[in-house]
Amino acid sequence: MSDIQQALKETYDALQHATRVDRHLAELNQELSEAYKELDKLEKKLEKEFKDIERLEKLSVKGLFHQVLGSKEEQIEKERQEYLQASLKYDEAKKSAKLLEYERDLLEKKVQDLPTLKNQLDQLVKRREKDLIQNRTDIGRQLLEILTRIDTLHQFANNVVAVKKSGQEVQVILDRMLGHLRKAKNWGQWDMAGGRQRGASYMKHSAIDKARDLSYHVKHLLVRFQKDLSHIYGPEEFDLHIHLESFSRFTDIFFDNLISDWIIQQKIQNALSNVQSVRDRVARIMQSLDAEIQKSDQSIAALEEQRRQLVLKS
What we know:
By secondary structure, the chain is mainly alpha-helical. It folds into two domains: 3-135, Helix Hairpins (Orthogonal Bundle), CATH 1.10.287; 149-313, CATH 1.20.1330.10. It is 86% helix and 0% strand. It has helices spanning 3-58, 61-67, 72-110, 114-134, 138-192, 197-233, 258-313. Helix 1 (3-58) packs antiparallel against helix 3, helix 4 (114-134) crosses helix 5 (138-192) and helix 5 runs antiparallel to helix 7. The chain is flat.
């Protein structure tokens, strides 16, 4: 066994031991937390029992008979016994907590070297891996293959993250468009219901204009988003086009024509449905991208562990 292999074995064993200690420490901290809760509960009970004794001692015999039957001395003796029992349980819980604290302090000292051991093992694994690859061993060839797959997955995950950024920009603009179209729909309904025609018509058309202006921006972003997606998944068709109908403008927004107003209301609803449909489609694609990133991360983690085990067992 070479020096580096020996160092690898010793460091790995030390790390495994420290990891077990760290796991034990986490469990012990949980026990200690429960012990503190129990101690607090017993302390409150102890205080209550002590106050009960004080209250009885101050109470006259006549007053005692008004509350309970029996002699004052008997009642005080009973309360003293209950206080003693509570005191014993409290002392036991306090000693138990002290022992847990002592054990915790010891374990905390033992796990202080955990980060250092992890770093040392990583460095040794890299050195050993380099030797295995340079010497063209069978394990070295397996390691090279794993490294290539890891690099490919990292590149894919980075591309997906970049595409997600494009998708997020699309979502922001689509949400703004939906907001304006909903306002236009609401103002239009108010206008048709006999509200202030001049103000309602103006607000409705203002909201429509804002939605239309954003449609030019979102169209550009959707094209870019589709191109980014096609770079990852190939020339797959993503139906993300927005079919925003051109809205009719009234010659005079101060006097609405009832028929025309019903028509424009329908167009607003159609545009709203269309934009919402695109927004939902983008959201589903974004969820798929999140799943792809998670899947890649899991695959990378599995390959990294496989790579690590190959080196450790070599």
